[in-house]
């Protein structure tokens, strides 16, 4: 008796990444749940961050480049007066200074200066490779090298709440933007330094957080139910030939 080969799943699965996991951790858990190896993601989130992580299942991995190039929306928190080596809450504290008596109006005015096309210097604690070596590996050895600025665009940078020393914000930007660098640079411009203390990706392209399932929800679902949640390649990236 012969059996037909099992058809592997194919499509885009939207995950609300929990805090504390790397994007690869999510890949590993989905591979285990779906009993598939061909799984990737379109746009890394740092372990500290939560929110929209586009997972590519099966042959959908071929549209990775298309989905990575879309704009991203975030909500985050910056803490003024504390600068870290990684520019976020996971790094070592470098300096601590008192926060001056800033007003919301002053902060909003400085935030306006971040809008538009610009070049951003990526942080040392990043996965960008120089001569084949990730910058974060050099940073862990205490090394710092000159980094090539990267072109980005910030379409929106809005103050949501300001209760010193913490500020919450909404950011809409192009791919490759380091939000922790935006928070760090904002602190520098305000004269007291800052680091990114929380981050949530609320949208990646046309996909929003309301469409996502948590990892726990996915792992609790039977496989046929997960398959129903997959977005077909032609819907996720209509410009990609089938």
UniProtKB/TrEMBL annotation:
Family note: Belongs to the pseudouridine synthase TruB family. Type 1 subfamily.
SUPFAM superfamilies: Pseudouridine synthase
Pfam families, alphabetized: TruB_C_2, TruB_N
Keyword Transferase included in the entry's annotation: no
Record Gene3D superfamilies: Pseudouridine synthase
UniProt-recorded Gene Ontology molecular function terms: RNA binding; tRNA pseudouridine(55) synthase activity
Provenance organism: Oleiharenicola lentus
UniProt domain Pseudouridine synthase II N-terminal: residue ranges: 31-179
Domain tRNA pseudouridylate synthase B C-terminal: from-to ranges: 180-220
Keyword vocabulary terms for this entry: Isomerase, tRNA processing
Residues at the active site: 46 (nucleophile)
Catalytic function, reaction form: uridine(55) in tRNA = pseudouridine(55) in tRNA
Presence of the UniProt keyword tRNA processing in the record: yes
Coiled coil: none
GO biological process: mRNA pseudouridine synthesis; tRNA pseudouridine synthesis
Protein name, entry field: tRNA pseudouridine synthase B
